[in-house]
User: Fold this.
Amino acid sequence: MEFKQAYDIVMKHEGGYVNDKTDRGGETYKGVARKFHGTWTGWKIIDDMKTKSGFPKSLDSNTTLQSYVRSFYKEKFWDSNKIGYINNSSIQLELFDTGVNMGTSRAAKFFQEALNLCNRNQQDYPDIKVDGDIGRGTLSAYNRSRPASVFKTMNLLQGELYMNIIRRSPSQEKFFNGWLNRVDIRFNV
Assistant:
């Protein structure tokens, strides 16, 4: 899978401009949360456009802003987790989408934990360190894994975290149906 294809799929889940006070990311544009990415260059354009008519719809037609969004996603969510080195489109998309929704370190940890859970008590390959950094050891384990099992396990871990978030903070339940659309994203392609 190429970045552009994955980006187009993930954007179906991200929407546009939102400023929901109960969303833990706060003010967000196409999944870029100001709370977590406050130095992103696109915020300057958004802040300027807030004072003009047509906001927030006008954001989607600003080609410079759209270019910033794509570049941000490629660098922060695709390249940082070395997704281009993985030869399974389902796992690529899962890593990318989970990185966008939950952070790249958590996505990488789900991948690493899934690899460890699926190695049949280290019969297929040794356990790897679950550190949120996809490096040679993680990629080597992946190349010896059963990708379908790893993919399913990543989705189980993602779903489990969503449920735990809601258990700890019931106000987040209003996001649950949208989050469920991200579990096993292949079905939403």
